[in-house]
Amino acid sequence: MSVITVNAIGDTCPVPVIKAKQALAQMTEPGDLVVLVDNEVAVQNLTRMGASQGYAVQSEKTGDGNFQVRILVNALPQPEESAPDAACIPDARGDLVVAVDSAHMGRGSEELGATLMKGFLFAVGQLPRLPSTVLFYNGGASLSCEGSAALESLKSLEAQGVKILTCGTCLDYYGLTSKLAVGEVTNMYTIVETLAGAGKVIKP
Amino acid sequence: MSGPDGELRLIATFATTHSAISMERLCRAQGLPGRLIPVPRSISASCGMAWCALPEEREVLEGAVPSDPAIRVEGWYYVMF
After folding, report:
1. CB contact under 8 A, A173 and B47
2. In this predicted model, what pLDDT tens digit does every residue of A106-154 receive, in sequence order?
3. Same fold, A2-73 and A96-202
4. How far is B64 from chain A (nearest CA, A)?
5. pTM for the predicted model, two decimal places
6. Does the domain at residues A96-202 carry the CATH identifier 3.40.1260.10?
7. What ipTM, to 2 d.p.?
8. Which residues of B touch A (CB under 8 A)?
9. CATH H-level, domain A2-73: superfamily
10. Which of A97, A109, A104, A45 is nearest to A71 (CA)?
11. Structural contact between residues A151 and A180, judged by C-beta atoms closer than 8 angstroms
12. How would you class A31 by CB atoms within 10 Å of its CB: exposed for 0-12, middle for 13-18, buried for 19 or more?
């Protein structure tokens, strides 16, 4: 497995996607293609480019405020299969808000509910129009904390510019204040304004 | 608590969410005035719940707090809203 890193910091669309495609074409064995960028739209476009070729894509914000997109190239692209053009898709964030009020999706088995929630938050990241914000409150607050099975999905959403907001009152109540692992702490005023300003709200 | 907007309110903030919930339990049990609200932004940009009452109710509230060791008031404020 090789790891190839492409530095596209400072580049605007379509340059990061073009650079990534060139690197992909030059790969001689399966491996990870890591692209460093400095804007969320580039993360979105790279995610689409990777997904359109059937690769899993992970992304996260790095400590320096930039973003790392990791495309898991499990099989080399066929030379004749030319990838779709590097279109500059406009910012894909809509006015959708996802409100997560429990660590479990639906009623019934909690074990099943936790599994469903993990799948739900992953699938949110696959939406053609991403939500502007994902809110976590009450039992949902544990999902954005250390040890959560959903962290990878949430970090990827954050890297694509989706605001990840967790109720601070709830973190405090559950003793999780120091465990928040993605996004920011919020308060009831912001939660209400976010819900009131949303075009659509979905609750898993 | 049903006065018009722009009235002066007494706000007590707490160290923890549990502390705020204990305050509500105490006040309900003893018939003390006030209600639990999210901490006003003018006091703190952070999170949390606060006890909101009228300024003249401070004395009775402050007097009741020591009866429950779970209640740790961080500060008493006067806020217009």
Report:
1. no
2. 999 998 999 899 989 988 988 888 999 999 999 999 999 999 989 989 9
3. no
4. 23
5. 0.76
6. yes
7. 0.70
8. 16-18, 38-39, 41, 45-49
9. TusA-like domain (3.30.110.40)
10. A45
11. no
12. middle
